[in-house]
Write a structure and sequence with these properties.
- By secondary structure, the chain is mostly helical.
- It is built from 5 helices and no strands.
- Helix 3 runs antiparallel to helix 4 (124-136).
């Protein structure tokens, strides 16, 4: 089958459009999973409060001082939950930005790096990442992304000033 540039351009546009949709969906899923981090943090906070109240009442009954070690466990749970939330929100934001870059045909290297990182999200992220790598490595797609790179600004045109003009002839 002979190479048809029009057909290849249509295929490239369609594949980039499908990858864009895939990254929007993946960003939404990552953002939804980040809510589990908030739940985990709230669970840790509630556990810390429950442990502190039970430790205070047990210490009051026994007439001993309150030990802070059990209360730290709830704080650690909350800290892990916040870390999970922030990391998943960051991943969602990166995937959303990749979708925008694919849509606008810019930042090919950034899209390539995030595609490699999204391969860690088994199974959906792996499929999305591999297809992104395959599409971004096509020479025709490279040209699409290179067409959006603007050259650095050149020097402004030379405008002569009074000091640059030659002296008038003497008579």
């Amino acid at each position: 089958m002979p190479y048809d540039p029009v057909r290849q351009a249509l295929a490239d546009d369609e594949h980039l459009r499908l990858l864009t949709i895939g990254y929007y969906i993946s960003a939404g899923i990552s953002a939804a999973y980040s809510l589990l981090g908030i739940f985990y943090a709230l669970m840790g906070g509630m556990m810390g409060l429950a442990i502190s109240h039970s430790a205070v009442s047990a210490a009051a009954r026994a007439g001993q001082s309150n030990d802070a070690a059990p209360q730290i466990i709830g704080g650690l749970f909350a800290l892990v939950g916040v870390a999970i939330f922030l990391s998943l929100i960051a991943i969602a934001a990166l995937k959303f930005y990749v979708a925008r870059c694919l849509e606008q045909r810019k930042s090919r290297t950034f899209c390539f790096v995030i595609a490699i990182l999204s391969c860690l999200g088994v199974p959906y992220g792996t499929v999305l990442g591999i297809f992104t790598i395959l599409v971004l490595e096509r020479p025709t797609v490279k040209r699409l992304f290179d067409a959006n790179v603007f050259p650095p600004p050149s020097a402004p045109p030379f405008v002569p000033t009074v000091a640059d003009s030659p002296a008038p002839p003497r008579v």
